[in-house]
């Protein structure tokens, strides 16, 4: 997620992390195109979104994480983000790329217009390669989202 956000900067990046619908465990990272190609707004390309959601349905998956970046502001949902948050079971992860040396990653639940922040715990060290992971000078390799012991862990 962080690498995608940095690669698309100065435009906002967006994507989904899908997982089995029964477990909501994040398994498959799906970087998507920001149809707006904007520094202040993102929108999934409608044809791509339909294809991705159909593929998730066919694989009995759900969007576990929906993410996008903010390029000049903090990683906090805007009014527009809240308005378009249509997956109440998803974790909405925002990545701020305003500082080229720090990855600000925050996770939220957005249900019926109400924003609830979830703790995000970094599980790896920036710039270090964990077993099976490539080092990234800009990002922690793994994050844990949520409040419970069985919280979501995703390598990004």
Keywords:
alpha+beta, 156 residues, 6-stranded mixed β-sheet, Cytidine Deaminase, domain 2, 33% strand
Structure characterization notes:
This protein is an alpha+beta fold and 156 residues long. The chain has one domain: 3-Layer(aba) Sandwich (Cytidine Deaminase, domain 2), CATH 3.40.140.10. 17% of the residues lie in helices and 33% in strands. The protein has helices spanning 2-8, 46-58, 79-84, and strands at residues 14-20, 28-32, 61-70, 91-96, 104-111, 114-118, 120-122, 142-145, 152-155. Strands 2-1-3-4-5-6 form a 6-stranded mixed β-sheet. It has a 3-stranded antiparallel β-sheet with strand order 7-8-9, with no helix packed on it. The chain is globular, with a radius of gyration of 15 Å. The N and C termini lie close together (6 Å). Mean pLDDT is 84; it is low at 126-141.
**Number of DSSP helical runs:** 3
- How does the major sheet shape up? 6 strands, mixed
CATH architecture: 3-Layer(aba) Sandwich
Give the H and E element order.
HEEHEHEEEEEE
Topology:
Blueprint: H1 2-8, E1 14-20, E2 28-32, H2 46-58, E3 61-70, H3 79-84, E4 91-96, E5 104-111, E6 114-118, E7 120-122, E8 142-145, E9 152-155
Parallel strand pairs: 3-4
Antiparallel strand pairs: 1-2, 1-3, 4-5, 5-6, 7-8, 8-9
């Amino acid at each position: 997620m962080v690498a995608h956000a940095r690669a698309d900067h100065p435009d906002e990046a967006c994507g989904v992390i899908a997982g089995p619908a029964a477990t909501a465990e994040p398994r498959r990272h799906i970087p998507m195109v920001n149809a707006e190609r904007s520094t202040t707004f993102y929108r999934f390309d409608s044809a791509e979104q339909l294809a991705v959601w159909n593929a998730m349905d066919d694989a009995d998956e759900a969007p576990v994480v929906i993410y996008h970046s903010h390029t000049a502001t903090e990683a906090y949902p805007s009014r527009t983000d809240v308005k378009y948050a249509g997956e109440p079971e998803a974790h909405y992860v925002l990545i701020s790329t305003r500082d080229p040396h720090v990855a600000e990653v925050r996770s939220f639940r957005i249900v019926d217009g109400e924003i609830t922040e979830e703790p995000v715990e970094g599980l790896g060290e920036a710039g270090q390669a964990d077993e099976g992971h490539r080092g990234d000078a800009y990002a922690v390799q793994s994050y844990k989202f949520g409040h419970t012991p069985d919280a979501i862990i995703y390598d990004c």
